[in-house]
Amino acid sequence: MIPPLPSGPTVTSLTAAFCAELRARGFAGDLTMAEADRTVLATDNSIYQIMPQAIAFPRDRDDLVRIATLLAEERFVAVRIAPRGGGTGTNGQSLTDGIVVDLSRHMNRILAIDPVRRTARVEAGVVKDQLNAALAEHGLFFAPELSTSDRATIGGMIATDACGQGSCLYGKTRDHVRALTTVLADGTVWHSEPLDAAGLEAAQGRPGLAGAIHREVDRLQRANAALIETTFPPLNRCLTGYDLAHLRRADGRFDLNAVLCGSEGTLGLLAEATLNVLPLPRHVALVNLRYDSFDAALRDARTLAAFGAASVETVDSKVLGLAQQDPVWEGVAAYFPEDAGERARGVNLIEFVGDGAEAVEAALARLTAALDEAGTAHGRRGYTVARGEAEVGRLWAMRKKAVGLLGNTKGDRRPIAFVEDTAVPPEHLADYIAAFRDALDRRGLEYGMFGHVDAGVLHVRPAIDMKAPGAEALVRAVTEDVVALTRRYGGLLWGEHGKGVRSEFSPRFFGPLYPVLQAVKAAFDPRNQFNPGKIAAPEGAALLTVDGVPTKGQRDRAIPEEVRAGYDEALHCNGNGACFSWDPDEAMCPSWKGTRERRHSPKGRAQLMREWLRRLAAEGRDPLEEARRLRARPGWRAFPARLAATLRRRDDFSHEVHEAMAGCLACKSCTGQCPIKVDVPTFRAKFLELYHGRYLRHHAVAALEIAVPQLARAPRLANAATSLGLARVVGLVHVPRLSGLDLHEELKRRGVAPADARTLGRLPEAERLTSVIVVQDAFTSHYDTPVLLALLDLLIGLGLRPWLAPYRPNGKPLHVHGFLGRFARLAAANADDLGRLAATGVDLVGLDPSMTLTYRSEYRQALPGRDLPRVHLVQEWLAGRLDRARPASGSEPYWLLPHCTERATAQPALADWTQTFAALGLRLSVLPSGCCGMAGTYGHEAEHRAMSERIYGLSWAGHVAGRGRSGRLLADGYSCRSQVKLVDGLRLPHPVEILRDHLAAGPPACRRTTPLTA
Hints:
- It is globular and about 95 Å long.
- Helix content is 42%, strand content 12%.
- The chain contains 47 helices and 25 strands.
- Strand 5 (110-114) and strand 6 form a beta hairpin.
- It has a 7-stranded antiparallel sheet.
- By secondary structure, it is of the alpha/beta class.
């Protein structure tokens, strides 16, 4: 039995008093000092980990005023804050040991869009892709691009003056900022926009901090104009943070936003922004140019940029290789063919955009003609061309994933961000990168590279095991090498990701101008309370250093190596935050989208798991050994101790971890869509096993698969009990009714026999080739029997002979609820039974995606090294066996809402549905969608029902409202169909029902099959 784990660092009395006073003054947002929340927000997308004292989630600008006003009181002079958006910073920008002010939870409203003036006014917590989705309705977009656009907030983009692909055409974030609303250190709400001489004079004449800031910043710029001009390099990626070089615009107006953009929350709290937005390009084309070497790709970039491209991006062979192992490759593989059997060692992606097709095609033709004429010169191999938003978008999605893909490198040495955004003049980039690579090669470090070659920015991530002793010293040494190189080549250490803990190099880069930046900081934040230690520190205060801030690796180091290996699914989360995607029609992560609580996300749960393992190690407990003990002895022997622990319910960090784990739907979106492949359902099950080895739980849900066949023997009685709500006794609500059909009689009527290895083995080979074994699942067979019968009828109609495997519990509920010992035993027995059937040469197919995919994932984990039989999804099996038929003219379209486990972990199978429908002359489109919120038993558990319906409302509700009554909206997941029926009172057909009906009504030509071959 695991021990109770004591609480970690306590909150100081000063912080507690500050939070209490904030509530007393009417703070309308959320405040938390809970250890789980603090643990999760101790990290961002960097290697660092700093535990905050508390987190404030302001609801509006007035809450920001309350925070700043209270900070200004003398008794709270020692309180520090750091604003936070999406938490995607790679250098600890939003980390603090004070109070985090998270603007993403509530301050995420788009306040106004003016299509005529082409402006948008937004709160700081609006996500970039969220804004662009709203702007698209007006044919507009917010131009600065970045790979984390589906979770990065506008406030965060402004804080780091972010930019990425296309910056040579569109510029940086600050180039699109018209006005900012900032809460200053004394609580003043200041609206900043470019000021003419009269406006500046009026601002300088104001009393209080706002007036003092305008007077001091104006004086500093005028007094140091010559020094500023010589210090700030003339780069596309000019110095961010207190950008005095652009304080005065070309027209002479004074623009305080130049200083605020890139200030990383060190000067005030950003509340709102008015942004310049642009017309969406109507036409786009992308050339994908392959090379013999990455160096050749870099050296060719300047030539390519001269063709007027909107952007030129490069990717090295390492990133390409990792992309080929990710589902994203499915949509782009055709654009990267091998040359004489060899993969490209580097590629350049050259994009052309415009309002007119002719102009885009003309620019494209000039480039392709030059490429054709030059042939293999400059190390080029060949190229492909993508046209249109859909095709080009798939390629950019692959490029965007490069950051996360690098983190999925196998082994403990993982590419990490700390020198990843250097910028040099583009003409020096190839030589600079050659020197950079030499420096890394000398230290024996592997790395991946990609970036914006047109702007002279390349993202380089050295692979370092941050858990290894001496890792911090290695980070220091590499950083010093890179600092020297960037200065040698006239560049910068920070090209687009801000300074954060790298601020220690500000004095070195700014030289005699650094005291001026200190004066800017002092003017805005005289008591150094706003994100101190970053960009500039007042006299007597220190800047953060790259090896002086605690790292995640240091804490993971305390976990024994064998334990780390046993919980590998959590330990490699690098904080990239892909699980925080804003898009409601993206499957990952439903619990995050439903709660807006970051602990209820793959990243949050992984961080909590690491901390839980560390605390177990500190108590001298090995969770792997504890799990072995639990499985080795009968559960009843520990019952008295578990009952006592449950009744005492003492302080235990495990309770906070359990609350986060219990909210997971086990949909497995993280295992497929997270670039690192963080696998929450697996480590969650391991945690639940140990947690409930100490604390009691009910077993009803886990036993459901075993109980259902027994209930089905008396369906009327079982359904009567359901109607009376008796399931509430074990915490279940809205339990579905059994179908009530006599499956045995239905099988006899169709001539479908039970699958038996001996009988199948005696079949002639030709008959085996046209036979198929349907593997049952508890829910379709007993609660949605007509769907199972529809599959049998479809197979018979196709001239095939279906056999029905004897019912066996699949074990999925056991795994979901952490009964891993029982699950392993059941999986072993099932694998034996299914293996004997598969050995006859007859294929196995399953109907429910979630249950069927368990055979190839959870079974593989539970039975390592075993040769497991393949259970195909029904559409996978059908797609390869139906002749291609010409689509019927005028056929009505169908739409599929797939199960999210299927979408995340078996993406090619979605195309198999489309292919199968096409073979029978039908059109099917797979709709983008999130999770339905049911997720097996999750939506039937009383404690989760409200959240289940909230998740349903985010994505599925809209699809069902728009198409549900057409009869052509389909769902292949049993739990998904149950949720729709429960919430909207509609029954969505399963795809096999449509195929069966079409086949029954169609000509015999539709019924041809391709015999199975070995």
